[in-house]
Design a protein that fits this description.
Blueprint (H helix, E strand, L loop, with lengths): L10 H11 L12 E5 L2 E4 L4 E3 L3 H4 L8 H11 L13 H13 L14 H16 L3 E5 L8 H6 L17 E4 L10 H14 L6 E4 L12
Parallel strand pairs: 4-5, 4-6
Antiparallel strand pairs: 1-2, 2-3
The structure holds pyridoxal-5'-phosphate.
């Protein structure tokens, strides 16, 4: 029986309490609950030890609890945690933007806007492209993954699991085939697909952007 007061010691107890408290929509892939993690290893609440091949879906580039990351977070928390940069700005935002600008490829001048999620970054990129060009259209590719908000889902090129049952999606998003040896789509096929799109669905002078994300966490589907 599910009981909200059940002890929280074993993985099974966590799973049962979670069933009462957290909606099914947040699917969890692993049937274990994390207690501790260090570098590339993770221990569950029962003390079982695992090698973590996932790393928060490819976002823990320095592993779990890197001492420099922990020290920096603790030092920051001794000063302030959140002021909202739009209201009271702070120096580390600028320093991080400068660092990312120096790492991003290309010789052109660069600027960085920091947001909370990948989906928010993608949505802002589309909004900026639309505002800058005065055009609505966006071309995305088959097999691309762009996030789980409605606009990014509209651009995501695969139905299951994320797009299933939650449409309709925003308009003016067009899809072109992405070259994929696995699916037998050559570069020439992809270019022909793009040219066909301009003949059949997407009016070229009303297209603001073509979106390709070269750095993949979810991995894209292709
Ligand atoms: C290529 C790509 N775009 C967008 C996203 C969405 O990021 P978030 O889950 O932070 O919204 C992801 C997440 O895995 C991703 O891999």
């Amino acid at each position: 029986m599910l009981d909200a007061n059940m002890a929280l010691e074993t993985n099974a107890q966590f799973i049962a309490r979670r069933e009462l408290a957290v909606p099914r929509g947040v699917a969890s892939a692993a049937p274990i609950y994390a207690k501790y993690a260090e570098n590339a290893e993770l221990w569950d609440v029962e003390g079982n030890r695992y090698i973590d091949f996932v790393g928060g879906i490819g976002v823990l580039n320095t592993g779990h609890r890197h001492p420099k990351v922990i020290a920096a977070a603790k030092a920051q928390e001794d000063h302030y945690t959140h002021t909202s940069f739009q209201v009271v700005p702070y120096g580390p935002y600028i320093e991080l933007a400068e660092k990312l600008n120096s790492l991003a490829p290309g010789d052109m001048p660069k600027k960085t806007l920091l947001v909370t999620t990948g989906a928010e970054a993608v949505e802002n990129a589309v909004k900026i492209a639309r505002a800058a060009t005065g055009r609505p259209g966006v071309i995305a590719f088959t097999g691309g993954y762009h996030g789980r908000t409605l606009l990014t889902l509209g651009m995501t090129g695969k139905i299951s699991p994320y797009k299933k049952d939650v449409g309709p999606f925003p308009s003016d998003i067009f899809r072109a085939p992405f070259p994929s040896p696995r699916d037998g789509i050559t570069v020439e096929d992809a270019i022909t697909g793009l040219e066909n799109l301009f003949l059949t669905d997407a009016q070229p002078e009303r297209v603001a952007a073509i979106i390709i994300e070269p750095v993949l966490g979810e991995g894209g589907y292709t």
